[in-house]
From TrEMBL:
Record key words, sorted: Membrane, Transmembrane, Transmembrane helix
Pfam families for the chain: EpsG (PF14897)
Protein name, UniProt field: EpsG family protein
Residues that span the membrane, as ranges: 21-41, 81-100, 107-123, 155-177
InterPro entries in alphabetical order: EpsG-like
Length: 193
């Protein structure tokens, strides 16, 4: 039920005229998403392996080096898995919110973007996928940097994301697509084939 409350109520804030109310709504949605993701327990696709890995750092799985170092850092600071989940959820969600705000400048569009993110991606992909969500946040922000002509920062973010989840290297294709001067029609044609 709580899943639906957010998606039913939150979009209405995009129609509010008062900018301060929109900002508060955006901050509340950020807190909701971070809390929702970090306070879950035994939920998600790979919850148990990540939990075991965090609680028994000597029993390493074959995780990427960035994630291993990240776990070591958090584990050095605390052995509380909920705090680990909190930190792990705040990073990508903050990057996604920041990226939406940077590209849209319009708070109403940012609110609607967050709703789309929540309904199409957040619920299915952010629970029990600790490495992947950090990589997604970094890759998303890398694309924002690329769009802002900050290609070196974009490349660094993509490489950093790949140290959490190697699949992030697919994001490098943005450099190739731009070099080939492919238009949207050609890209969709290739993806649809």
């Amino acid at each position: 039920m709580i899943y639906y409350i957010f998606i039913v109520i939150f979009p209405f804030f995009s129609f509010v005229k008062n900018k301060n109310i929109k900002i508060y709504a955006l901050m509340l949605s950020f807190l909701f998403l971070v809390s929702f993701c970090s306070l879950r327990w035994q939920t998600g696709t790979d919850w148990l392996p990540y939990y075991d890995d965090f609680m028994s750092p000597g029993n390493r799985h074959d995780f990427e080096i960035g994630y291993v170092l990240y776990v070591k850092l958090i584990r050095y600071l605390t052995d509380n898995y909920t705090l680990f989940l909190f930190t792990t959820s705040i990073i990508p969600i903050a990057l996604i919110f920041w990226g939406c705000l940077k590209t849209q400048k319009n708070i109403s569009l940012t609110i609607l973007s967050v709703c789309v993110f929540y309904s199409y991606y957040y619920l299915g992909s952010f629970f029990g996928a600790e490495r992947r969500i950090i990589a997604i946040g970094l890759s998303f922000f890398a694309l924002i940097q690329y769009k802002s002509n900050k290609k070196v920062q974009s490349l660094i973010l993509i490489l950093c994301a790949s140290t959490f989840h190697i699949s992030s290297l697919v994001t490098l294709s943005v450099f190739l697509i731009n070099k080939l001067s492919l238009n949207l029609y050609k890209i969709l044609l290739v993806l649809g084939a």
